[in-house]
Amino acid sequence: MERLKSVVVTGGTVRLGKEIADFLENEGWRVVRSSHRMESGAQIVADLSNADGADKLFDEACRILGCIPDALVNNASLFSLGDDDFSLINLRSPMRLTELMALRRDSVGAIVNILDTRILGREALTPYEKDKAALCAFTLESARKYAGVLRVNAVAPGPVMLPQSVSEKAGVMPFGRPEPADVASAVSFLLSAKSTTGVIIPVDGGQSAVP
C-alpha cells in the first residue's frame, strides 16, 4: 500500500491552523499537528518560543512518522500591534524548521509558510509585520537555495478569522472576505504543485490588488 503523504502543521489545533490541518486530513494527508499547549490534543507539544523548540518539534515529528516529513506548513505565529517580540515563533522557528526539512532527504519536500496580506505592498511597521515580511523574503531565498530539494512557497491570508461584522481598515475586498477553506485550499495546492516554488499567493478577496 502506498504510504500516505505526511505533513506537519504548526499551530494546527486552533483557528486557521486547525482549518488547514482538517482540510489536508480530508484530502488524505497524514497530518501531524503541533501546539504549545498540553491540553490541545496535538500529537506534538513544543514551545517555539524556546530556542530549541523547533528542533524538539522536528525530532518528535520524525519519531512519530518514522521518517522526515514530506511537507511542512509553518502556521504558528503570535500577533501583536505593539512592541512585543515574538520573532522566535514568527520567524526564527520557521527558518530553523526549513533548514531541518532540507537535511537527509531522499525525496523532494514541500513547505508552505503562512504570511499576512498586510505586509504585501507596504512598509512593515510592527514587530509582527516585520517578522512576516522577513519570512516572505526568506521564502523566496529558500526556494532558490533549496531548489531540487525543497519547494518553498507561501500563502498570505487576509482578514479570514475575524467576525463578519468587523470592518477591516482600508479593507476594500472586491471578492468579499475570504473563508478559512480558501486559505486551506491554497495551501493544499502549493503542497501538491510539483513544479511550483518561490510563489506567494494572497488569499484576501483582492485586498492586496487594489489601492
Written account of the structure:
The chain has 211 residues and is α/β, with parallel strands linked by helices. It has one domain: 3-Layer(aba) Sandwich (Rossmann fold), CATH 3.40.50.720. The protein contains five helices and seven strands; from the N terminus they run E-H-E-E-H-E-H-E-H-E-H-E. It has helices at 15-26, 53-65, 87-101, 127-145, 180-192; strands at residues 6-10, 30-35, 44-45, 71-74, 109-114, 150-157, 200-203. It has a seven-stranded parallel sheet with strand order 3-2-1-4-5-6-7, sandwiched between helices. Helix 5 links the parallel strand 6 and strand 7 (200-203). Helix 1 crosses helix 5 (180-192) and helix 2 crosses helix 3. The radius of gyration is 16 Å and the shape is globular. 43% of the residues are buried.
**CATH fold name:** Rossmann fold
Give the CATH superfamily: NAD(P)-binding Rossmann-like Domain
* Number of E strands: 7
Reported CATH architecture:
3-Layer(aba) Sandwich
Order of helices and strands: EHEEHEHEHEHE
Mean pLDDT: 92
Radius of gyration, taken over Cα atoms and rounded to an integer in Å: 16 Å
- Give the helix/strand class: alpha/beta
Strand order of the largest sheet: 3-2-1-4-5-6-7
Approximately what portion of the residues adopt beta-strand conformation?
Answer: 15-25%
